[in-house]
Protein 1
Amino acid sequence: MDTQLTGKKIILGVSAGIAAYKACTLCRLLVKAGADVYVVMTKDALNFVGKATFEALSGHKVSVEIFEDQKDISHISLSTGADLMMIAPATANTIAKITAGMADNMLTAVTLAVTCPVVVAPAMNSNMYQNIATQENIATLKRRGIYVITPADGPLACGISGPGRMKEPEELFSDIVSILSNRIGYTREQSDLLPPPVKPLELTRTRLLPKAYGAGLKVLITAGPTEEPIDPVRFISNCSSGKMGYALAEAALAYGAEVILVSGPVTLTCSKDITLIKVKSASQMLQAVEDYVKEVDIVIGCAAVADYRVENYSPVKIKKEEGNDTITLKLVKNPDILATVGLLENNRPFTVGFAAETNNTEENAKSKLVRKNLDLIVLNDVSKKDIGFNSDDNEVTIFDKDGKIAHLEKQPKHVIAQSVMELIFKYQKNTK
Ligand code: C5P
C-alpha cells in the first residue's frame, strides 16, 4: 500500500499500561500502511503483551533491555534514521522519566537518542493523570517540542471513569500521518497540544487528501491583485502573485470541493475543474462574488484588493503637461468585498480572510477579523523577505474569534494551502 508512511522508520514505545493491547492494532495499522516499525517495550509492559505479538506484527525483534543484545541492536542504532517515535501507552512513570531525561531502559534511552519528532500518548488512572506532577511533566514535554496526545475521558481499567484513556489506535495512526505530513492540529483542543514552533520536518510533499473534507461543499476564493484603471494605459495595483489563492483553490479541489476562483490579473493557470472568473478591478471582483455568494458554503478572501480607485477615470490617455510637474489623482475607497460577505445577515457563508501585515501583525489581524465579521483570519508577516508576496513559500498564523488556533511554519505555499484548507473544512463543519 503506497501511503505517506511507506518506508518510514517508526519506533513504537510501549510502556506498562493495559492500553498496550491498543498498541498492537496501531503497530498493525502502521505496518499495513508501509511503515517499518520497531517496537521498544519496558519490562513491565511485558505483563500486558508479550514480545512475540509485536515481533509477529512488526516483523522485527522487540527491544526491552539496553544490554540484552549489543551486537545486534542498540539504542543508538535503533534511534538512527527514525522518522517518528510514538510512545503509546505512555505511563505516568515513563512520562516522568523522559521529562527528567533518564535513560534507564531501552525505551527511555531511545527517546533521549532520537532526533525525530516524539509523540506521547498518555494512558493512566485519572488521578495519576491529573496529578500536578504528571501535568507539569506533560507541560515540560510540550515546551520541548514533544507532541502529547490528550487522553480521552472514559471508563478506565481501574474501574473509574475519567481522563486517562488512551486514544484509539486509528486516531493515533492519523495523528502520526498528520505529524509526518507536517500538518497540525485542527481543533483548538488539538492545537493546544502543539509544541512550540520546531524546525519543519522533512515533508512528504504529495499526499492523498481525503475527499470527504470538501465533498458537497462549494468554495469561493478571491485571488491575485486588482487593477484600478487611471486611464486606458495606466492603473493602480497591489503586489500579489496570486500563488496563495491559486494554491488554496487547488487544495480545496483536491479535498473534493467545488471551487470558484475569482481572480485578478495574474500569470497563473489552474485546473480545468475549477470555475475561473477573471476580473480586473475591485468593483468587478465584488460583482463576481455577489453573483455566487448565495450558492457557496465558504468564501476565502485571498485577493490583495486595492483599497482605493481613481474617482474620475480618464477615457483618453493622460498627457504630460508642459510646465506642470505634478498631477493630482483623487482616490475613493473601494468596497470591502470580504466585509460585504462577512456582514451578510442571511445565508452568510463561512468567511475567511487573509491579513498581510508588516507591523503589529497579530493586533491588526485580530481587529480585521472582528471588523469584517470573519470566522477565521490567516496572518502572514510580509515584512519577512523570504515569505509572502511573490515568494513560493509562506508562514502563517491562523486566528478565530477566541485567539490563535494554529501556526504553520515556513513551507511551500501549496503545502500551507493544504493545511489551511483542511483547517477551514474542519471549522466550517463545526459551525454548521
Ligand atoms: O483590510 P485588508 O485589506 O488588510 O484585509 C485583508 C482581507 O480583506 C483579505 O482577505 C482581502 O482579500 C480582503 N479584502 C477585500 N476587499 C477589500 C480589501 C480587502 O475583500 N477591499
Protein 2
Amino acid sequence: MNQEVPKALRGVALLKVRNIHHWTDRTFSFNCERPQSFRFRSGEFAMIGLIVDDKPLLRAYSIASPSWDEELEFYSIKVEDGPLTSRLQHLQEGDEIVMRPKPVGTLVHDALLPGKRLFLFSTGTGIAPFASVIRDPETYEKFDHVILTQTCREAKELDYGKHLVETIANDELLSELVGDKLTHIATTTREETEHMGRMTDWIRDGRLAAAVGGDLDPKTDRVMICGSMAMLQDHKKICEDLGFVEGSNSEPGDFVIEKAFVD
Ligand code: A2P
C-alpha cells in the first residue's frame, strides 16, 4: 500500500489539542502535545495553524510554554475576519493543529549580553513569549531581577498574565527558583485599574524607575520587547536614546524586539 504523506502534511507535525481557555472575547490560550523530537529555546516562535482546503494555513506564534515543558502552549488573539484565528478560536479538545517544527526568534537569552536586570515589555498577546521566558530557570540563573510588564486596553485582558504569575508562585519548584526575583507590572489604558497608562509613558515620566528602583541603564539592564509595530518602534527609540544596542542571535546586544502575532 502507498503510505506516502499527503502533500498538505509534508514538513508539518500534527498536534492534538488538550486544553483551551477563553480569557476574553478577543483572546484564548490552548495547550497541545509536544512531539518528542521538537526542541526550542524559551521565547522562540513556530509556524502553527490548520489544514484549510487541503493546504496548511500557518502563522507565526510564540510558544508560551517554557522549553522544559512536555506540552506546548499558545496564547492567541481572535480576529473576526482573520484567516487563521477566525477558525482557530473554535478549536475543541481532541482537535489537531499543524506545526512546522522549525522554531526561530530573537527573544532568547542567546541574543542578549549578560546583565543584572531583565525587562520584558509587552502589550496584548505580546506577553506570550515572556510566558515562556519567565518560566525558564535559565532566566533566573542569568538575571538578579526580572521585570515583566504588560499593557492592555481593558482589565480582563490582563487575566492571562496574572494567572501565569500565580501559577509560578504556586509551583513548588519554580517558586523556589524565582523567589522574589520576578516583578509583574500590569497596566491598562482604556479602563480604570490600579495601574494606568502605556509603559512607554511610565519609562519617560519615571513611574517605572520608581516601581523597580532605578532608571533603565544599558550598563546593567537587558530588554526584550513584544507587541504591535507602533509599540515596538516607540520602545526601540527609548532604548536607543538611552544607549542600548539591538542584539541578534549572531550578535548579542542589550535589547531585542519581535512583533506579536496579528491575524
Ligand atoms: P492605547 O489604548 O493608549 O492605544 P492595541 O490593542 O492597539 O495593540 O493596544 C494594546 C495596548 O497597547 C493598549 O493598551 C495600547 O494603549 C497600548 N499601545 C498601543 N500602541 C502603543 C505604543 N506605541 N506604545 C506603547 N503602548 C502602546
